[in-house]
Amino acid sequence: MSSILSNRVQKVKPSATMAVTAKANELKAQGIKVVPMGSGEPDFDTPSNIQKAAVDAIRGGQTRYTAVDGTAQLKSAICDKFMRDNELEYSANEVMASCGGKQVFYNLCQAILDEGDEVIIPAPYWVSYPDMAILADATPVIIETDLDQDFKITPKQLESSITEKSKLLVLNSPSNPTGAVYTREEIEELGKVLERHPQVYIISDDIYEHILLGDDDFVNIAMACPKLKDRTIILNGVSKAYAMTGWRIGYAAGPEDIIKAMKKIQGQSTSNPTSIAQAAAVEALNGDQAFIETMVEAFEQRHDFLLESLNAIEGIECPRSSGAFYSFPRVQGLIDRLGLIDDVDFATYCLEKLNIALVPGSAFGAPGYVRFSFATSMDNIKEAVERLANA
Ligand code: GLU
To answer: What is the pTM assigned to this prediction?
Structure first.
């Protein structure tokens, strides 16, 4: 019997991060206390100055359609942010706002990819990159990395993954799920490879830019390799830095023709992101930035505690995260000790038996690993570690 569903939708999987959260919520609805370390979102409230900007926008009548690519105020705040934080100059025609970083990535894939195009994605990768490439009929080409190479690709690996069909390289530093951060020198070395292959564009997913846990400074490829700026599309947003995941405001910066094409896709799908959330994002980007430091300090404490506690459990090897709010340990030893099949089985065991929500490494292209989000209270983290140690 032929299915009503398109071939396209049958080629992709549901988002694993979304699925874990939904499952954890189901258990919670049954009255079970689940420790939420699955989905990655700050557990802080959106700062009150940002909340107020949204309320003012509602009361002030900012409740109608805006320009598809965002209000003039938001686009100007985005340009100012790039100048202030990254010393990158963009004009209003080179930036746009979307419904979350996810829509930026989706728009870009739809705007530049055709069947047969290859998208180079370093693994472990965020769950949605390959599937969004597939939804644009392109082919993901995965570069494998593991804990022993700090989850970072080498110039040699990059060189050997490039073909004449390569169209896009995905870079994400700080990384979801590994917390790895590329240094300026490492990015420069990757840049030298890319300079030799002018057909390859780069998407730099900078969504965790401000969540830095070590001494590394943030740097993206447009900053480190100015020659590549006109082949780079930057993805960023207010979700992670300002605890605004539900508001759905992401933004892009890049060459004008590509931004224009992304705007065309957005104009034929969602139109503008929510007007009220845009007003809130203007305050997030232009207002007091002190909140970020307070939040990152909390993440640092939680990270250090989790790191030490996980490494004290036989069968877990947890590297230090330099950014984002994830720990990504190798748990193969523990999987074997518990007599489980694999990391998916391990995550199911953690959810159903220990009531800890985690995302299995396989969802990120890294079997044998598991992702802990420590964007949750210290009490929750202590509880999770205790349940795991007892098991
Ligand atoms: N980026 C977050 C995560 O990985 C949000 C969930 C999602 O959109 O995938 O958990």
So the answer is: 0.96
